[in-house]
Amino acid sequence: MSKDYSIPNLTLDERDKQILSLLHEDGRMSYTDLGKQVGLSRVAVQARIQQLIEAGVIERFTAVINPAKVGIHVSVFFNVEVEPKFLEAVALQLEKETAVTSLYHMTGPSKLHMHGIFQHEQEMETFLTKKLYPLEGVVSVDCQMLIKRYKSRMGMKL
Fold this sequence. Notes:
Arc Repressor Mutant, subunit A, Alpha-Beta Plaits, 2 domains, 4-stranded antiparallel β-sheet, 4 strands, 34% helix, AsnC-type_HTH_dom, transcription, DNA-binding
């Protein structure tokens, strides 16, 4: 089942953008503290955030976890070429995998771009040989292991 990524009919004003920017920096900031920073009451901030959630501007609130601190040391980017008629089925199967953190259909000859995290190289190898390669329609897989992270996009800044 595909998610709806259409742009909602919501016009963001400067206060909405300020609220989003502050939440981007600290998603746990209280409505009261947000209100003080943007010049609105706690109730007004709460109402605006609820509107942003209902419009799909805010998709979810989450914790950003440092993978290395929880024993996940292998971060890999995959380019997976898939026969066009199998693209949707392969994507639906891969999105179920817990190791897969992001999955995108990219331009080009039926490419899926995917990021996965693993505790160690053997876990990645098992993922490749037992889960990815056997999928019907997979033509080729190109892997690139992350050496050092300089910047990671978490959400988006306005």
